[in-house]
Amino acid sequence: MSASSDRKGQVILITGGGSGMGRLAARNFCQQGALVAVFDVNEEGLAETAQGVEGLSTWKVDITDFAAVQAAVAELESKLGPLTGVYNAAAIMPFGKILEHNNAVQHKVMDINFGGFINITQATLPGMVARGRGDFISFASSAGLLPIMYAGVYAASKAAVAMYTEILYHENINSGVRFVCVCPAVVKTPLLQQAKDTVWPKMLDQGAPLDPQEVIDDIETVLNNGKFWVYSGKGTETGTRIRRFFPGLIWKQVHKTEGF
Questions:
Q1: How many Å from the N-terminal Cα to the C-terminal Cα in the chain?
Q2: What is the CATH number of the domain that holds 140?
Q3: What is the spatial distance between Cα 132 and Cα 129, in angstroms, rounded to a whole number?
Q4: Which terminus in the chain has less CB density within 10 A, N or C?
């Protein structure tokens, strides 16, 4: 996806486009002339995303079902044309202490956030690699790089997305496809309410949530600078460096903030 606001001829798939970051990205790209396909399980959210937007098509798809994902991707490409971009924005974010967190919920987080991401990857990326062009954007999280108590399974799912995407990028480094892994701080989207409805880590109150548009703008900047990591949010990149070289300092701060 170019820096230009002219996206005519582009076909972009966005998962989790029934709300939040995915919805904003979908509407932005349609306004810029792209044909956008949105996947989500939330029919009401899909309808709200598409309302009054030209060039946007919706599919109710459970991304944990690989056969359903393959069928939907084949259908959208037959109707709209070959994909030139994929935004992997689908996720859920319930929090809880690992030993107290419902077992089924923990598996569901991994199934959607990581398993669904695998399904989308294998259904869309081979075609873009074969054509030698396209953009593949993975939404991980700073939580996948920096430890946050109460966010164990969510953080694990996003750490998996980050590592998977990094290796995927290097395995296809000369393919012509551009890869970006997005690791923002807290972003003001409906996902935050999922966490707040369970338990909210004090570590996440260290600053105001980011505006989603700021993250989308950062993605475009990183793409067009030929980089890979998107560290949206003040101190996010610095925090990852401290985590790497001085992990004890990070944990000391976490314990102090959470009070145990």
A1: 45
A2: 3.40.50.720
A3: 5
A4: C
Residue 6 lies in a domain: no
Residue 39 lies in a domain: yes
Q: Do the domain assignments include residue 1?
A: no
User: Considering the chain, what is the average pLDDT of its residues?
Assistant: 96
Catalytically annotated residues: 154
Kindly state the average pLDDT of the residues 70-87.
Answer: 98
Angle (deg, nearest 10), helices 20-31 and 212-224: 60
Q: At what angle are helices 117-131 and 152-171 packed, to 10 degrees?
A: 20
Residue 176 forms part of a structural domain: yes
- Cα–Cα distance list, 181 to 32, 93, 218 (Å): 23, 18, 11
Work out the burial of residue 116: count CB atoms within 10 Å of its CB; fewer than 13 is exposed, 13-18 middle, 19 or more buried. Answer: buried
pLDDT above 60 for 2: no
- Summarize pLDDT for 126-174 with one digit per residue, the tens: 999 999 999 999 999 999 999 999 999 999 999 999 999 999 999 999 9
pLDDT tens digit string along 27-54?
999 999 999 999 999 999 999 999 999 9
Cα 124 to Cα 105: distance, rounded to the nearest angstrom: 27
Distances (CA, A) of 260 to 101, 149, 251, 252: 18, 10, 11, 10
Find the range with the poorest average confidence among 3-7, 116-120, 172-176: 3-7
Question: Which stretch of DSSP H or E encloses residue 39?
Answer: strand 35-40
Count the domains in the chain. Answer: 1
Give the dihedral of Cα atoms 18, 107, 181, 13; nearest 10 deg: -30
Cα(138)–Cα(89) distance, rounded to whole angstroms? 7
CA distances in angstroms from 82 to 126, 173, 230, 232, listed in the order given: 11, 21, 26, 30
